[in-house]
Write a structure and sequence with these properties.
Helix content: 25-40%
Distance between the termini: 20 Å
Radius of gyration: 16 Å
Order of helices and strands: EHEHEHEHEHEH
Strand order of the largest sheet: 3-2-1-4-5-6
CATH topology: Rossmann fold
Oligomer: single chain
CATH architecture: 3-Layer(aba) Sandwich
């Protein structure tokens, strides 16, 4: 059972654009591909976990979501990086499309996508990390007993200023971007491993 790094998508890996309702709106954030490549080189699974209620709201079709993820994977590959899994929640309780009108267990901050990924990929959630730009990512981390990290890209800076102060759950780390978060995670895992050897 390995630790992993669970990555929010919009605002963490790519620019926060609201809903990506056209392929032209997908842009990787600076240093995001380099960050994921560092995880790959360290042998740490990188797993994307993303709410995509735009499907349920009828803002874009499933084909576009698949196209966006194919583009993301191509751009990461061009930078020598890859993700080990992509898990999406397409649901929304007030969905326009009936097939997505579900009160599910997978929409963050609920932990369903994380537990599914852990089962399918052989991951230890309690030794894992969740990196995102919203407090819903941090709440999901807490429900999984994982370590939550807030990045200041996307909605992160605003969430830190206006949402975070009233929250009981706080991030273990606030990082400027995904690259800085990954740098800290790799060091933290190394420190944990060293402590385990000494105990």
């Amino acid at each position: 059972m390995r630790p992993a790094v669970f990555l929010d998508r919009d605002g963490t890996i790519n620019e926060q654009m609201g809903y990506i309702n056209h392929i032209s709106r997908f842009h990787l954030l600076p240093r995001a591909a380099a960050a994921i490549r560092r995880l790959n080189e360290a042998g740490i699974p990188a797993v994307v976990v993303t709410n995509q209620s735009g499907l349920a709201r009828g803002y874009f079709p499933r084909e576009l979501l698949d196209e966006v993820h194919a583009l993301m994977q191509r751009q990461l590959a061009e930078a020598g990086a890859h993700v080990d899994g992509i898990y999406i929640c397409p649901h929304y309780p007030e969905a326009k499309l009936a097939e997505y009108r579900v009160n599910c267990d997978c929409r963050k901050p609920r932990p369903g996508l994380f537990t599914r990924a852990a089962t399918e990929l052989g991951l230890d959630l309690t030794r894992s990390y969740v990196v995102g730009d919203r407090w819903s990512d941090l709440k999901a981390a807490a429900r999984c007993q994982a370590t939550g990290i807030l990045v200041l890209t996307g909605y992160g800076r605003g969430d830190q200023a206006y949402i975070g102060p009233a929250q009981e759950i706080q991030p273990r780390l606030v990082a400027e971007d995904l690259f800085d978060a990954v740098t800290w995670i790799i060091d933290d895992l190394r420190d944990r491993a060293a402590a385990e050897k000494q105990s």
